[in-house]
């Protein structure tokens, strides 16, 4: 069980529409999205941290940048998958997990893993994807 938890956030403005909202596509509209990623770590690396904040924040910013000022429905995989907050949270989780695995390699399982990603569609509505 992780003993440390890191939190990084990114923001982006984007348009989207659900492809099947109550049986029909909804109108295109925009949100001020915020994504929060929680990284759990059982132990620290030799320099006293689990994951470098600068690198972690950069990775999340790069992922959010794919959607910045775009129509989310045109960005894969959301050109085929309805861009619900739940689907977006899962996508950020999976992409950040992949980044962590490539960055930490064999050390990742004992050092750090993505615990949860929350995707906010505005100040009051969010969906969270929790890892195992």
Short description:
The protein has 132 residues and is of the alpha+beta class.
Provide structural commentary.
This protein is elongated. A hairpin with a 5-residue loop joins β3 and β4. The model has no long low-confidence stretch (mean pLDDT 92). α1 crosses α2. Strands 1-2-3-4 form a 4-stranded antiparallel sheet. It is an alpha+beta fold.
> What oligomerization state is this entry in?
single chain
Helix/strand-derived class? alpha+beta
Radius of gyration: 16 Å
Poorly predicted ranges: none
Helix content: 25-40%
Please give the count of helices.
3
- Relative strand content: 25-35%
Topology:
Elements: E1 4-16, E2 29-41, H1 53-65, H2 85-104, H3 108-111, E3 113-120, E4 126-130
Antiparallel strand pairs: 1-2, 2-3, 3-4
Task: List its traits.
132 residues, alpha+beta, four-stranded antiparallel sheet, 3 helices, 4 strands, 28% helix
């Amino acid at each position: 069980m992780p003993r440390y938890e890191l939190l990084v956030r990114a923001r982006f403005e984007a348009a989207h529409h659900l492809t099947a909202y109550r049986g029909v596509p909804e109108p295109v509209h925009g949100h001020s999205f915020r994504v929060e990623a929680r990284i759990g770590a059982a132990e620290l690396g030799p320099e006293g941290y689990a994951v470098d904040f600068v690198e972690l924040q950069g990775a999340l910013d790069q992922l959010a940048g794919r959607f910045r000022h775009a129509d989310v429905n045109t960005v894969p995989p959301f050109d085929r998958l309805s861009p619900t907050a739940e689907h977006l949270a899962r996508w950020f989780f999976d992409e950040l997990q992949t980044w962590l695995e490539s960055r930490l390699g064999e050390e990742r399982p004992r050092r750090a893993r993505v615990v949860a990603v929350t995707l906010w569609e505005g100040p009051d509505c969010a969906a969270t994807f929790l890892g195992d």
